[in-house]
Every structure is written in C-alpha cells, then in structure tokens.
Amino acid sequence: MPGSPIRKLAALAEGRKKSGIHVYHLNIGQPDLPTAPKVLDVIHSYAEKTIAYAPSNGLPRPLTAWKRYLDHCGIHFDEHELIITTGGSEAIIFAICAVCDTDSEVIVFEPTYANYIGFAGIAHVKVRAIPTSIENGFHLPPEAEIERFITDRTRAILFCNPANPTGTIYSKEELQRLVNLAQKHGLFLLSDDAYREFAYDAHVVSIEDFPEVRDRTILLDSCSKRFNVCGVRIGLLASHNQDVIATVLKFGQARLSVATIEQLAMVPLLEDPETYTKPLVEEFRKRRDAVCEGLKSIPGVTYYKPEGAFYITIGLPVKDSEHFSKWLIEEYEDHQETILLAPAQGFYATRGKGMNEVRLAFMLKIDDLKRSLVILKNALEVYRDKFMK
Ligand SMILES: Cc1ncc(COP(=O)(O)O)c(C=O)c1O
Questions:
Q1: What's the CA-to-centroid distance between 290 and ligand 1, angstroms?
Q2: Ligand 1 in contact with 235 (CB < 6 A)?
Q3: Within 10 A of 150 (CB to CB), how many other CB atoms are there?
Q4: Given Cys at both, which of 65, 145, 203, 235 links 141, Cβ 3.0 to 4.6 Å?
Q5: 91 Cβ inside 6 Å of ligand 1
Q6: Contact 111, 345 (CB under 8 A)
Q7: First and final C-alpha spacing in the chain
C-alpha cells in the first residue's frame, strides 16, 4: 500500500513554518476559496431531532438533485441507477470492487491520480499503468499501444477526464479508442468525472456520449472540487448496468450510509450548479494562464498548456524531483519564503518513472502563484550549483 505522495512532505513544511519561513503550497488539490454560504445554511438549519442513517443508496432529495444536475450536464440516468457515496473516493473503490476479482487488472494512464494505485491495492487488484508523455501533453497513446497492456485478467480501464495530475482533456477520438477496446475485450470503463466543469480550452466529452458501451460504463463523480466542498465527502456512482448497481448497493449496505446532513447540504448546489462552478472555473482559468506564463521564464523546464482541471505536471532540470522538493522545504529560502511541491514519482505506478517531474496545483492567488514560480526559478539555480556541478 503506497503512502500519499502529496502528504509526504507536508509534515516537513509544518516544521519549517514554525521556524518562521513562509511556505507556498503548490502541492495539494484543494480549492483555497470559501465554500458557498448556502452549504453552511443547510447544515445550521437542520431541524430533525435525530441524525439518522440515510438509505444506503442515498436520501431521496439528494438523489433527485443529483439526477437533475447530471441532466443539466447532458448526462441522463434514472434515480435507481445512482448511488451516493462518501466522496468520489468511495465511488472509485466500489466500482473497482464491483467489476474485479482479486488479482484482476485495471488499466490506468500514468502519471495517474495516485490514489487509484491505493484503491486497487485495497481490492487486491493490480494496476497496469500505460505510459503517457509530457511531449504531447499526456494525451492517450494509439489504440494498438493501449491494447498491448490488455491481458486475460484485465477487467476495466480507469481514467479521469479532465485528468489529475496532468490537466489533460481527452478528445472524443481518444475516448473512442477506449470504447473500441472495451467492446472488443469486454472491459468496463470507469470514468472519473471529478473535474468535469474545469475545462478551459477543450470541450469535455462524456463517456455517456457512447451508447455502444452503455452497459459497460460506470460514472464516478464528486462534489469536492467543482463546488469547493472537499470536506463534505459527497460523491456518486452511476451506471445503467443493473448488475453493477445491485452489487455496489451491497457494498453500500455494508457501510450502512453516507453522512445525512452533508448529502442534504449539496442539494442547493446540485440544483443550481453553474452559479457555483462558473466563478470557480474562471478563477482557475486565470491561474492556469498565469502559471504557464511564469513557467516560460524558467530555463530547462518542460511543460505544456493543461486544457482542464487545476494541475500541471512539469519536467524540471533535476535528476530527482523528490530530493529537490525535500531540499526546498527543509533547507532553501528566498527572502524567508519557499515552496512545497508534489514530486511526480508518486503519480507513477512504474518504479523509476517521473523522476524529474513535479505536479503543481493552482491553489494560490495569482500574485502568490507568480511569486512561487520566481522562487522555483531562483531555487533551481542554487540547486544546480550545489548538487549538479
Ligand atoms: C481524479 C480524482 N478522483 C477522485 C478524487 C477524490 O475526490 P473526493 O474528495 O470526492 O473523494 C480526487 C481528489 O483529489 C481526484 O483528484
């Protein structure tokens, strides 16, 4: 079971802050803006005398709100095809458990959302990681290349669109490759749509736009990022495949229910999504542009323009980005300030990959992002003189 690569250096950062150094956090994907007051209104006005268990598939009003939200996105499910989960995380775990046996294989594209590796580990499922590369913005390889990784144990392809940690948005044609392979090899497509609204340059095509795999898709969703409510822990699993839903419901019954008040707190947001998502997405678009602009002036850095989400994985002119990141947080300072990065090794299932890459998350105001990139530039010069001469 791998430890979280993102949280690894965070403890060191806390120590450094105590010694008076300001740390800019570029490491974790939690929006820094305030949560909509409506969420807190629902929580404060909860009037029942008992906070009871909810039904295992979700409370009726939140289920209806989820259905309406998805309809609004052009994605159509009946309410009995939905199961509310404790975050998108639980939806992913349930989906893997529902379609795999122990020792089955699930295909992911690396760099990948690191917890996919951990979730597969919980289910005793093996991750087969297909490489993608920074040179083409981490887009998918050709169909034949993906097919090489399919074995008789492969049960599913798990992908995130827009993607974490790369911000890549897969085109319709790229998704068609996965659809073709799912049909040819009898695989499930597990589509993680946690960042659906965070699309800047490209339209996000849903896996639901491919009716030919209607029975083979499982949609995994989350309120965390789009509504800026990471701590409420509300997500969703949706599938037209009734066997999948019946199995997932059994997992749901085993964990009893999802937090009652938090399910209700999401209703106003799900019923009127754009009011909440639009300003957030516009803010992140500006930040994405500021980061790309700032990276331009750093010698030796490799990057592309991420089309969505709020991450970018960049190549640095260092041999070991984990060593560089640790040095930044333990030793380096620029006018009593430093930065906390997420070394990309943890986003690779294949040992030895991503050694010179880091992920940046755009969780700071634009001026702070700009300042962080200046610190990165200055630090790289010092690091090179110190360790790479
Ligand atoms: C790609 C992806 N999927 C799922 C999740 C989990 O989200 P949740 O907070 O809903 O569990 C995250 C969180 O960072 C993520 O980046």
A1: 24
A2: yes
A3: 18
A4: 145
A5: no
A6: no
A7: 36
Please tell me the distance from the alpha carbon of residue 311 to that of residue 128, in angstroms, as a whole number: 23
pLDDT for residue 4: 72
**How does pLDDT run across 205-215, given as a tens digit for each residue?**
999 999 999 99
- Ligand 1: which of 7, 86, 108, 113 to mutate, most ligand atoms within 8 Å of CB? 113
- Joined together, the tokens standing for residue 308 give 């969505």
Single pTM value for the model = 0.96
Copy the structure tokens of residue 301: 């850095």
Q: What are 14-48's pLDDT values in tens digits?
A: 999 999 999 999 998 887 889 999 999 999 999 99
Set out the domains of the chain in order of their start, with CATH numbers: 5-34+275-387 (3.90.1150.10), 37-272 (3.40.640.10)
Is 190 touching ligand 1 by the criterion CB < 6 Å?
no
**115 HSE (CA, 13 A, CB side):** 13
d(CA 215, CA 284): 34
Ligand 1 center from residue 89 Cα (angstroms): 6
